[in-house]
Design brief:
By secondary structure, the protein is an alpha/beta fold. The chain is built from six helices and seven strands, in the order βααβαβαβαβββα. It starts with a strand and ends in a 6-residue tail after the last helix. Keywords: Oxidoreductase.
């Protein structure tokens, strides 16, 4: 079974990432691989780990984690074979909280596949563009298909003038098709990378 983490990258109060993640989980549940037990998608919310700005004295590449919050985050990430990153776009990039969470670890990310669900006024496309550069350095194989949700077309708000309202994620049907293709790619690439993960050195306790 391929274990896929749905990583919610925004920690902002009132974030819309929770609504997006709910849509991803509900839609992915009907995917044949998930429904048939070949893959499972579980939530991995950066906000739940309350990571401070990177405070490890040794670079992550050495794997010498000293902080309890780092070890907890490392254990959570290590348990998965692949990732779907849910990210908004902030000022042409992805959230600082997500970058911080990525920078905390190194070996735990490697030889795994990843896809992206972006959202924002431009569909989060520029945030995903920058995330792809980070994936390369972390040795994560990012798949080409992505989901780009528009704040104008793919969300429903009871009061569109209220910027604090999370709203409901109501994507057009073609986004579900893109998510399905992305999951197929993630599952295939993750399976192909399994021998590399098996050869990896055991992670530090």
């Amino acid at each position: 079974m391929i274990r896929i983490a749905l990583v919610v990258g925004s920690t902002r109060p009132g974030r819309r990432g929770t609504a997006v993640a709910r849509w991803v989980l509900d839609t992915a549940a009907t995917h044949p691989a998930v429904a048939g037990g070949r893959a499972v998608l579980d939530l991995l919310d950066v906000a739940d780990f309350q990571l401070p700005l990177l405070d490890e004295p040794v670079p992550a590449a050495f794997g010498a984690y000293t902080r309890p919050h780092t070890r907890r985050w490392a254990a959570a990430v290590a348990a998965f074979d692949a990732f779907v990153f849910v990210t908004p776009e902030y000022n042409h990039s992805f959230p600082a909280a997500l970058k911080n969470a990525l920078d905390y670890l190194y070996a735990e990310w490697q030889d795994k596949a990843a896809g992206f669900v972006g959202y924002g006024t431009s569909g989060g496309t520029r945030a995903v563009e920058q995330l792809r550069q980070v994936m390369g350095e972390l040795r994560i194989a990012d798949v080409p298909t992505q989901v780009a949700l528009s704040m104008f077309a793919d969300f429903t708000f009871t009061d569109p003038t209220d910027p604090t309202q999370p709203g409901t994620c109501t994507p057009a049907p073609h986004h579900a098709d893109a998510l399905s293709r992305m999951l197929e790619e993630i599952i295939a690439w993750s399976a192909a990378l399994a021998p590399l993960r098996a050869q990896a050195q055991p992670l530090p306790a």
